[in-house]
Amino acid sequence: MLTKSDLVAAFRKVGLIEGDLVLVHSALRTLGPVEGGADSVIDALLETVGPAGTVAVPTHTWKIVNGAQPVFHQTLSPANVGALTNVFRLRPNALRNLHPTHSVAAIGPRAAEFIACPNMTTPAQPDSPYGKLRDWGGKVLIIGPGLECCTFFHGCEQWAGMPRAVSEQPVQLYSITADGQVIPVLLRHHVVNTWDQYPKLEPYLLEIGALTIGKAGDCDLRLLDAAKAAAWLVPQLQKDPSIILPEPSSSEP
């Protein structure tokens, strides 16, 4: 059984340091038994980055919020991207933004500024949390899965102007704040689903020093330097988007 101390040691070994801004994708079950469960994982992340650091998780609802069911609630809508994200977002000191399909929650001194998302017209605008990961020197930690779950790469597709990265026609959605305010959002959603091709990027990201791989017990850890990854990937996609062409059966991560 892994303890919080085991996790802190593993997170530090893979490259997380005090003061980091990190967005965490996770499959909690891949860690196996953890003393204290999801809360211990969250506590370990917060301890690793320290009081000056900020930890965030995706709290996406793209599976349940769409044209047929267009309402997102900041507090009540559960995330569909893993058990840890729902434990995290319900912590008293966690802040969650209002993006109807790709919301993010964060804890730390930069949480409010990080999750602020004034332009919600696509899943990953440059001023979204994904753009801030790139611009603020943030990191992406993946606990368990491979690069297929890394939403940051969808941002790179948008920033590169990749054809059909998002839809031409928006869908009308509504975000409801914790205090009941209703905010209309016209969202252009992802069209070409490329997530199952992202593992192809791993050797290149390792080669340029944008990715490190470690372990927590038997569980794989991947730590991505967002700025380094985007500096390589965006120009690559502008030259040749076929490097992440999707399989016909792909679906949104």
Give the topology:
Blueprint: H1 4-14, E1 21-26, H2 37-49, E2 54-58, E3 71-73, H3 83-89, E4 95-96, E5 104-107, H4 111-115, H5 129-135, E6 139-143, H6 152-159, E7 171-176, E8 182-187, H7 202-207, E9 211-216, E10 219-225, H8 226-239
Parallel strand pairs: 1-2, 1-6, 3-7
Antiparallel strand pairs: 2-5, 4-5, 6-10, 7-8, 9-10
What does this protein structure show overall?
There is one protein chain. With 253 residues, the protein is of the alpha/beta class. It has one domain. 28% of the residues lie in helices and 20% in strands. It contains eight helices and ten strands. It has a seven-stranded mixed beta sheet with strand order 4-5-2-1-6-10-9. Helix 6 (152-159) packs across helix 8. The longest helix is centred in the last third of the chain and has 14 residues, at 226-239. The radius of gyration is 17 Å and the shape is globular.
